[in-house]
Amino acid sequence: MDSINFFKGYGKVNNPAGNQQPASNRRRRILLAASLAVFLTIVIGAMIGALIYESATEPPESEEEQLPASDSGESLKTVCAVTQYLDSCINSISALNDPPKSDPVHFFNLSLQVSQRELASLASLPKTLISKSNDRRAESALKDCVNLFDDSLSQLNRSAELMKVAVVGPGEKLLTEMRISDVQTWISAAMTDQDTCLDGLDEMGSTVVDELRARVHKSSEYMSNSLAILNNLKSLVEKFGLKMP
């Protein structure tokens, strides 16, 4: 009997070593769960930090409306790309040194301002040529040019004034199709006046036509640029992600 009890007791002595295995597994699982929780905490914290940084560094809407000079330069190239005289368009508008702003309507107004200035300077040239000419036929044609240039400048001034209109009724648009059509007509008429002046001098066989032609060509380029921008204004505004005023 003692032998039997001994063996029974011996079996009980060896069992505790086997009963320790489940406790070890539980500790491993606890450590693994804790490690996973720490890892997830770090990842979530990093994601939240990135979102906060992106939100803090995003410029407000008011800052996005007026772009840096470099962006404005690219915008000007985009607008002038619709014209026949790309370099003339870019150089003449850039020379105004106007505060940078990425807005096709703004660039059109600047282009129109360039056209006005050049034509105002050109308008006095026929009078100067009259004072130097001994050709009565040429004088007659030049006098016609004086009137034509005055009318041409008046057309551009009307266009500029219409573009400056700021008071509109509730729900109205500043640049309606009718207003754009009016400006298109006036700029086209201004260009026609200049062509009529040159045609008259050509018919008279005047020797001063070459001197006047070079200046008229430059003025016509500027007006052609303005007209091209205006003709494409709606698509340009949409391309810039803006709305017609």
Automatic annotation (TrEMBL):
Q: What is its EC number?
A: 3.1.1.11
Tell me if Transmembrane is a UniProt keyword of this record: yes
Q: Which residues form the Pectinesterase inhibitor domain?
A: 71-229
Does the keyword field hold Cell membrane?
Answer: no
Q: Name one GO molecular function term.
A: pectinesterase activity
**UniProtKB keywords:** Disulfide bond, Glycoprotein, Membrane, Signal, Transmembrane, Transmembrane helix
Identify which top EC class this enzyme belongs to.
hydrolase
Can you tell me where the transmembrane regions are?
30-53
The family line of this record is: In the C-terminal section; belongs to the pectinesterase family. In the N-terminal section; belongs to the PMEI family.
Q: Which NCBIfam families match?
A: PME_inhib
Identification of the protein by name: pectinesterase
Question: Which organism was this protein described from?
Answer: Coffea arabica (Arabian coffee)
